Amino acid sequence: MDFKGAYSPDNLKFLFDGFILTLEVAAISIVLSFIIGILVGTLRYTRMPVVSHVLALLVEIIRNLPLLLIIFFTFFALPEVGIDFGIKGSAIVALTIFEAAMISEIVRSGLNSIDKGQIEAARSSGLTYVQTLIQITLPQALRRMIPPLVSQFISLLKDTSLATVISLPELMHNANVVKGQSINFTIPIFLAAAVMYFVVNYILSIIARRLEARQA
């Protein structure tokens, strides 16, 4: 093992650049998938005719496909029909689609967990269905969703490593490039990558626990 050579200034900068891109792709995907997931999950909860069934079918299809396949489809197949997002864009689109499907199920389950008596009481007090959903049901459901949502966000951050297959220069891609310089760099470089992933995911876990404690 050659820690000194592996952790040269150039190698660490290259590794850190990949880490920053990982965080950027993950952050954008988290925001987009959260927004889409809430929308889809809420629409499914309302059981709108046709719309709810179509969304349910799409969610089930996406949830049962490997994320790697979705990445390949976004990057290699869509350009064949004139839709080209580029490497970074393809990774974000694929992650967003996959994670939005997962989050929509969390949202739907959270909404279904709210006591029906509260909904009936809100409706009897004069609130419309939409007002009840926005003011009563959704806020309570979101508090209950915090643990599974953070867990899903952590999974998303780790899943960005799959984008190395389309040569996205994220953390694992750059770690593999540095490792290729010498077999003695393998353990030091992957250890550094592991520490970077751990630190961010651990911070997210702490934030989730504190948010959950505040809501208790």
TrEMBL record:
It comes from the Bacteria. Pfam families: BPD_transp_1. GO terms for cellular component: ATP-binding cassette (ABC) transporter complex. InterPro entries: AA_ABC_transptr_permease_3TM, ArtM/GltK/GlnP/TcyL/YhdX-like, MetI-like, MetI-like_sf. GO terms for molecular function: transmembrane transporter activity. One of its GO terms (biological process) is amino acid transport. SUPFAM superfamilies: MetI-like. Its main location: membrane. Residues 19-208 form the ABC transmembrane type-1 domain. The chain crosses the membrane at residues 20-43, 55-78, 185-204. PROSITE patterns: ABC_TM1. It is found in: Cell membrane. It is a multi-pass membrane protein. Keywords: Amino-acid transport, Cell membrane, Membrane, Transmembrane, Transmembrane helix, Transport. Belongs to the binding-protein-dependent transport system permease family. This is Glutamine ABC transporter permease.
